[in-house]
Amino acid sequence: MAYDDRFDLLEDITSSRIKSNWRVNVRVLQTWKPTYAKSKDVVCLEALLVDAKGTKILAQVSKQWIKRFEDQLKEGTVKLLSNFNIVKVGGGYRTNTHQ
């Protein structure tokens, strides 16, 4: 995947940088659906993404949107993503070091 300046790099995306028109070209490395421990209800769809420079970021699709996006986020596919929100992730468990 070659870098194209029409796209933003994942390393430039942070929750503190306000921008409403992010455009990223990424490969879907892995997807999974976390569940609540007791009920086993699906919480969301999560995906680990990587760009042309090798920067990784965690993407999360809300439960209400899983049916719409699950088939589009297949592992190994390359996707152009736009029109998304950035939020700071809290907690002790991190899938990558991206801020």
TrEMBL record:
Gene3D superfamilies: Nucleic acid-binding proteins (2.40.50.140)
Pfam families: DUF223 (PF02721)
Domain Replication protein A 70 kDa DNA-binding subunit B/D first OB fold as annotated: residue spans: 16-99
Protein name: OLC1v1029868C1
